[in-house]
Every structure is written in C-alpha cells, then in structure tokens.
Amino acid sequence: MRPHSGETLGTCVGGGAVVGARAFYKVATPQWLLLFSNAYVIARIVLAQLSGQASRSREMQNMAFNFDGWRVVVAGGSRGIGRSTALGFARAGAGVSTCARGAEDLARTHAEIAAHGRPTHSAACDLADRDAIVRYISAAAAALGGIDVLVNNASAFGIRDNEEGWAGAVSVDMMATVRASHAAIPFLEHGTGPCIINISSVASLRCGAARPPYAAMKAAVNHYTASLAAILAPKRIRVNAIAPGSIEFPGGHWERARLNNLPLYHAARASIPFGRMGEPEEIADVALFLASPYARWITGQILAVDGGENLLGL
After folding, report:
1. Greatest Cα pair distance in the chain
2. I need a labelling partner for 224 at 20 to 30 A (CA). Which of 52, 216, 241, 284 fits?
3. What are the extents of the domains in the chain?
4. Among 171, 201, 271, 292, the one annotated catalytic
5. Where does 27-161 have alpha helices with state H?
6. Which fold has domain 67-311?
C-alpha cells in the first residue's frame, strides 16, 4: 500500500486521524495490521456518517416544511403513524390536536407535542362513536383557533372475517373517516391551505385472503378520498390518502409479530423489496408533504408508501 493512500484517508476524517494514519506508514508495520487499522478507521467513518444521516434527515424535514401557525388535527394520534405525524407537524411549527381511546399513550404523546412549544390539545375519544367525534372536532377547533389540516388515522384493524371484525372496520376505518371529515369541513373552509389526509393501506390495493374487513374498508376509504376530493375541490379543500406498507412501531402489529410469530414477521419482511419494515416517521414525512404548499396541485390521490411492497403483491 502506498503512503499517499493513508494520507488521503486521514484527510477525510480530520487532522488527528492524518497524524495517526501517517504514523502507521512510517514504521515497519505488518501488512495485516495496516489492513486492520484502515478497516477500523473506515468503519468509524461509516458509522459516524450513518448516525449523522438520521439526525440530518429529521433536521432536513424541519427545514423543508414550515407549518408555523397552522392548526392540525390527528384523529387517532397517540402512537405509531398518528403519533409520528402529530410530532412531525409540531416540529414544523403547527399547533396540534390528537385523540385516542388509550389515556396513557395519549397523555404521553400530548407531552411530547407540547415540548415543541406549540399550541397543544388532546382528548379521549372513541372514534366508533359519532357524537364523540363531533364533540372532539369542535373542541379541537376551539382549542387551536380553527383547523387547517385533518388527518384521519384511526383503524380497528379488523382481521377476522366475522361480525365483530366487520363491525369494527366499518365503524372506525370507514365511518370515523366520514364523520370526522364532515365535522371538520366547516372549519377547513376557513383554513389556510386546507386539506384532509386519510391513512389507508396497501392492503386496499389488492385482493387477498388476509384481513378481509380491514382491506375492504381501506379500499372504501380510497374511493371516498377521491369522491370527497371532487366534492370539495370548488371549496379549494384538497383530499388525499396515504397507503402505508408494513410499518413497525412499539405496540403495533408487526412488533407483536416479531416477538410472537417470527416466521410471519420474516415472511412479511422478505416480501418487501427494500428488505425491511417501514417506520412511522416515513409515513409522517409524506403526510407533511401532502399538507404543504408543495402539494397544492395534488388532490384525490392515493399514494403508496411501502418500500415497493405492493410491487410484488401482498
């Protein structure tokens, strides 16, 4: 190995590393030790870059989107995709309201949002209850001073093809989306860049034996998204949907599968061309884009965010 190779490597990692790299070449060091030392330095560089990329990604999101003064309501926002979406908007400057049934998760998310110093509101709400939804949307609008963005994220995740599975999917996945949208429209009509973002699923895009109620109701959400977009276009209210692929988060379906049904987890992960599960923040980033002025000419669309999962089938 030539001395200038070591100097080039040292230049990439800072002055101290330059001295160290040159020192290795100035003594009669065995070739295997030179290779080991260079590999160690390179590994440190790569790890540092990867670590920095994660934090820079979040910083870039904050720089790319400015929702200062906006009012955002996330129906179903205490954990997973809803939580990450609510926090993403708060980081970008928005006041945020969230609701959920679980008081503990809701309180924790409320505190995380409030830590960003923006107007924060949360309330317990059973999204299967029509009257509860109307009360929540009205309270959120009062607390924030209006509504600019509504994110419909609730799901009963109806897996079984039985009365209970269908009842939950119809009342939460479908009707909660309809009811929250209806309740929010009078506020959105006076909002800034008003829009509705519905959280669907790639399960809605193909027929299959798994999760019939969930998949069918998410397909209905897709259809309703396009219909509502056409209805609200004259009011300049945009409506879009995100169809996430397999997303893993604490307490979620895929974390439970990883802990309790590893063959299922590995099979699902193997079906994703990118070779990994998605993260809630990756859905939140798309929600921020769709709500932003960058997407001002986009409405009635269903955007799959799945690492290519839908390319190979579900």
Report:
1. 81
2. 284
3. 3-57, 67-311
4. 201
5. 31-64, 80-91, 103-114, 130-144
6. Rossmann fold (3.40.50)
Closest among 150, 140, 146 to 89, alpha carbons compared? 150
Taking a C-beta distance cutoff of 8 angstroms, is the pair 121, 139 a contact?
yes
| Mean pLDDT, each 10-residue run in order, the chain (314 residues) | 37 38 44 48 44 49 81 95 97 97 93 96 96 98 98 88 93 97 98 97 86 93 98 98 88 71 81 88 97 97 92 65
Q: Is 24 exposed, middle or buried (0-12, 13-18, 19+ CB in 10 A)?
A: middle
Task: Reply yes or no on whether 218 is catalytic.
Answer: yes
Indicate which residue of 155, 218, 246, 271 is catalytic: 218
Q: What angle do CA 117, 120, 125 make, to 5 degrees?
A: 155
Supply 150's token pair.
């509504």
C-alpha closest to that of 265 among 251, 276, 280, 250: 276
**102: alpha, beta or left, given left = phi > 0 and alpha = psi -120 to 50?**
beta
Quick check: 137 and 116 in contact, CB under 8 A? no
Beta bridge partners of 247: 278
Q: What pTM did the predictor assign? A: 0.79
Q: SS3 for 155?
A: coil
Active site residue 294: no
Q: Is 201 a catalytic residue?
A: yes
- For residue 241, give the nearest of 278, 201, 199 by alpha carbon: 199
Active-site position among 97, 136, 214, 265: 214
Point out the catalytic residue in the list 200, 204, 246, 292: 200
- Encoded amino acid at 302, one letter: I
What DSSP string describes 269-290?
HHTSTTSS-B-HHHHHHHHHHH
Please say if 235 is a catalytic residue.
Answer: no
- In this prediction, residue 24 carries a pLDDT of 40
